[in-house]
Every structure is written in C-alpha cells, then in structure tokens.
Specification:
It is built from 11 helices and 8 strands. The protein has 344 residues and is of the alpha/beta class.
Length: 344
C-alpha cells in the first residue's frame, strides 16, 4: 500500500552525503568593530586561551580588545584582497572549495555535497551544517584543514561542529577527518612546492626554515600531540626531498602572552641564522593549508625583516599549498577514503 505524505508536510530532499571543510576564520573587515568581534570570539575560546574566565575575560575585554583591533586591523589591511572585499584566507578557501567540489562531483555526481565554513567569523559552522541538512544530507563528513592536530585548531573546529549538531532536530550521522600530515599525496604536494621554489631561486638557500604556528609548552606537557606531529612532518618532508639535517630546521611562530612557547621561535631563529653566516634562507609554513595573516603578514613582513636586519641577504617565502592541483588531489583523496562505506 502506497503511503502519501500530508499536503502540509515539509518537502523531503533526496538523501545525500555532505562534506564540510573548515578553516580557522577571518574578520569580515579590517575595521575596528569587525576586528573586535572576530578577536573576541577567537580569544574567548578556551581551546586557544585556557585561563580561568574570571582571570582572563576582564583583561581581554578591558585591555586587549581595546588596543589589539587597531594593530591586527592594520596587519589585515596590508594583505587584504581589496578587489573581492575579503581576506586572502577567504579567497583561497573559496578557490579550494570550488576545485574540491568539482573533483567530488566528477566521482560521485550529485550524491555528495561539499561546502566550507570557518571556526571563527563567517560563514559559521552552524549555518553551513544547517544548509547541508536542508539540502538532504543525512550524513556529514567534517574536515578541519589542519595537517597536524592541535587542541587550538583541529579540536576546537570539531567542538564547534559537534555543538552545531546539537542544534539539529534531525541530526545527521557524522564523521571527522583525522590529521593528515603523513598522507603520501600531501607529502608529495608539499615536497613538490619546495622543489619548484628552489628551481626558481638563483642562489640555493643555505637552509629551509619550516615554521609552524606555536603553542605554550604547557599544552605539550598536558598531552597535546601537535609538537610531535610537527617534528615528524619536517622529518618526512626532509626524507621526501632527500636532504640532510643541515638543509632543514623546525621553528615555531606567533607567540602570544607571557608563557614560554615551543622553541625555537622563528623570528629569533632566522636572525640567529643570519648572524651565523646563513645569508640565504627559504621559509615554508606547512601547518597552514592556505595563506593567511600568519604567513602573508607575519612571515613575509615581520620575520623577513628580522632576518634582513640581522644581516641576511636573500629571504624566500614558499607559499602554502592553497588551491594547487596537487594539494586538491591530496585533499580529495583523503575525503574519498573517509567517505568509504557511506558512498562508494
């Protein structure tokens, strides 16, 4: 016996599988109030700053968020994509999304729907999950675009995804993608970007500085595996390139607050290298899947300046993998493996 739904029943979409890729986030503008909203959301995240609220929030609201939107806004303005009215991270993430969407459509047709969200700012995780559910997705694969796991990146993105799931009446089945720093195709793409960059440099760099976003050392002692995964990432890249230990070094950038962070600090290490006679260096930042404020402003401007002021001569920044075809192929392969059993 055929059953029909009532005339006023909500439209039922054909069942699909959703893929939601996630990046860190971006302010809507580099002006004061958009920057303040963005920084407030970011710096209020207990995964990022885990001090007790009674201790941290008065300082954040009365001092840091009074001054920092001006300095951070100026930094964003220096790299802003004025043609599109957005940050480079937003522009690149959109390009990655379009290419990944095309790759998945070629393999799965309309059975898989891919979109992107930001952990902080817009488009929010909640809004994009809701859009996937409204499109008929009863299964969702969530993919934080961080090769190495850290509580302040992968975990907080997953946290927000799970919070968004809690708001859904018809909650889809869910999976999250684990760290992918050991993925063969990803390593090939990363090594390829280094080799292409070196082919274009007139004088071979004395060393490649592999700069990762830092974190307090305390997080490592409390069990966060990020530092170990960064060290292994450098080793795997070195082996992929067939280099010696002298050709490559690991550093950490973006220190914030009074605590001791993972060392060596990139800004100090590049100056030390210059003073030690290594006048030509290249820098790469493999913890970022897309160029952003930490690479385009911090590395390209602040860290470069520290190297030159210390006597360095040639500083080459090797861009993130962004929407490079090899990178897209690697990410697409990771997605396909994590969709197994849901769609083949």
């Amino acid at each position: 016996m055929t059953q029909t739904k009532p005339a006023d029943h909500p439209e039922i979409q054909p069942r699909k599988v959703g893929v939601l890729i996630a990046n860190l986030g971006t302010p809507d503008s580099y002006d004061y109030w958009p920057m303040r909203r963005y920084l407030n959301e970011f710096l209020s995240d207990k995964r990022v700053i885990d001090y007790p609220s009674w201790k941290w929030q008065p300082l954040l609201q009365s001092v840091i968020l009074t001054k920092r939107p001006f300095t951070s806004g100026a930094a964003y303005k220096s790299i802003w994509n004025h043609d599109e009215g957005e940050s480079p991270l937003m522009t690149i993430t959109k390009a990655q999304t379009e290419k990944l969407r095309a790759a998945l459509e070629k393999r799965y047709g309309e059975r898989v729907v891919l979109d992107f969200c930001m952990r902080y700012g817009n488009p929010s995780t909640t809004s994009k999950l809701r859009a996937l559910v409204d499109a008929g997705c009863d299964k969702v694969l969530f993919f934080p675009l961080y090769p190495q796991y850290a509580g302040a990146t992968s975990a907080t993105a997953n946290d927000q995804f799970f919070r968004a799931l809690m708001e859904e009446k018809a909650q889809p089945a869910a999976r999250t993608v684990p760290p992918y720093f050991e993925d063969e195709a990803y390593l090939d793409a990363l090594a390829g970007s280094v080799e292409r960059a070196y082919e274009q440099i007139e004088v071979r760099p004395d060393t490649l500085v592999v700069s990762y976003h830092g974190m307090p050392i305390r997080y490592l002692t409390e069990g966060d595996p990020y530092h170990c995964q960064c060290q292994k990432s450098t080793r795997l890249l070195k082996e992929r390139l067939g280099w010696s230990d002298d050709d490559i070094t690991t550093t950490f950038q973006s220190v914030f607050g009074p605590e001791e962070w993972l060392k060596p600090y990139t800004v100090e290490e590049v100056a030390r290298l210059a003073k030690a006679g290594k006048k030509n260096i290249a820098v790469i930042a493999p913890a970022f899947s897309a160029d952003c404020i930490e690479t385009l402003e911090e590395i390209e401007e602040e860290i470069r300046e520290a190297f030159i002021e210390a006597g360095g001569e040639s500083f080459t920044y090797i861009p993130c993998l962004n929407d490079d075809d090899a990178h897209i192929a690697a990410l697409s392969g990771i997605i396909q493996r994590n969709l197994m059993g849901w769609v083949d």
